[in-house]
Design a protein that fits this description.
- Keywords: Carbohydrate metabolism, Cobalt, Isomerase, Manganese, Metal-binding, Zinc.
- One of its GO terms (molecular function) is D-ribulose-phosphate 3-epimerase activity.
- Substrate binds at residues 9, 65, 141-144, 174-176, 196-197.
- With 218 residues, the protein is an alpha/beta fold.
- The protein has one domain: Aldolase class I (TIM Barrel, Alpha-Beta Barrel).
- 33% of the residues lie in helices and 19% in strands.
- It is built from eight helices and eight strands; from the N terminus they run βαβαβαβαββαβαβαα.
- It has helices at 18-23, 48-54, 71-80, 96-105, 152-165, 182-188, 197-200, 205-217; strands at 5-8, 31-36, 62-67, 85-89, 109-114, 132-136, 170-174, 192-195.
- Helix 3 (71-80) runs parallel beside helix 4 and helix 6 (182-188) runs parallel beside helix 8 (205-217).
- The radius of gyration is 16 Å and the shape is globular.
- Zinc ion is lined by residues 9, 32, 34, 65, 174, 194.
Length: 218
């Protein structure tokens, strides 16, 4: 298992002040940017031009989570505008292996996401193609939803597969991660933690990043 990383999602931050909002989480390992197209999920957020201009406002790397149709067409461009990690959903990808390779070719880490009802088993042999696997712990589309405990066994199975193959793929969880749920995720084998509302509803978001990190490391 890799070292613990905290990746706050800016979805629930003040979206009219993104430059300032990303600077409030200086101790985060990554900034998690949720891209939604109102087709793959019933919500619309932001895309390439906003990310390109936000890139200049922080040195913290960007972790783009693409909840969009046709990631085969769009994902490599997120690497080109400076995202250090690009996650596509396997449910939307036409050729996940080719796509992961293209993202890597653009110099970013390639990551694949699974919705709560998508099993990991059919993708076991793809894991070496990925730098990170994202297991969603809510249905994607909105921040502030309740953590789904039913996803924990899948996290455990994914971690066991990675151990079996002896690979260094990071295992990220996203959705309902808070001081209340992060230990369960870490215990199941996750090592990269997205937290949106938990961080941005805190009085001091950067202090919450530290608290989440301490809880996951415990
Ligand atoms: C949901 C997004 C998440 C969201 C998490 O579809 O992918 O990244 O911002 O928000 P919380 O942590 O509030 O569940
Ligand atoms: Zn996300």
């Amino acid at each position: 298992m890799g070292h613990i990383q905290i990746t706050p999602s800016i979805l629930n931050s003040d979206l009219a002040n993104l430059g300032a909002e990303v600077r409030r989480i200086g101790s985060a390992d990554w900034v998690h940017v949720d891209v939604m197209d109102n087709a793959f999920v019933p919500n619309l957020t932001l895309g390439l031009p906003v990310i390109e201009s936000l890139r200049k406002h922080t040195d913290t790397p960007f972790d783009a989570h693409l909840m969009i149709e046709d990631p085969d067409r769009w994902a490599p461009a997120y690497a080109e505008v400076g995202c250090g990690s690009v996650t596509f959903h396997v449910e939307a990808a036409k050729a996940p292996v080719r796509l992961a390779r293209e993202i890597r070719k653009q110099g970013a880490r390639a990551s694949m996401a699974l919705k709560p009802a998508t099993p990991i088993e059919p993708y076991e042999d793809l894991l070496p193609e990925l730098d990170m696997l994202l297991i969603m712990t809510v249905e994607p589309g909105f921040g502030g939803q309740k953590f789904l405990d039913l996803c924990l066994p899948k996290i455990r199975r994914a971690r066991a597969m990675m151990d079996k193959h002896g690979i260094e793929t990071w295992l990220q969880v996203d959705g309902g991660v808070s001081l209340e749920t992060i230990e369960r995720c870490a215990e199941a084998g996750a090592d990269v933690f997205v937290a949106g509302s938990a961080v941005y509803s805190a009085a001091d978001p950067d202090k919450m990043v530290a608290e989440l990190r301490a809880a996951a490391e415990a």
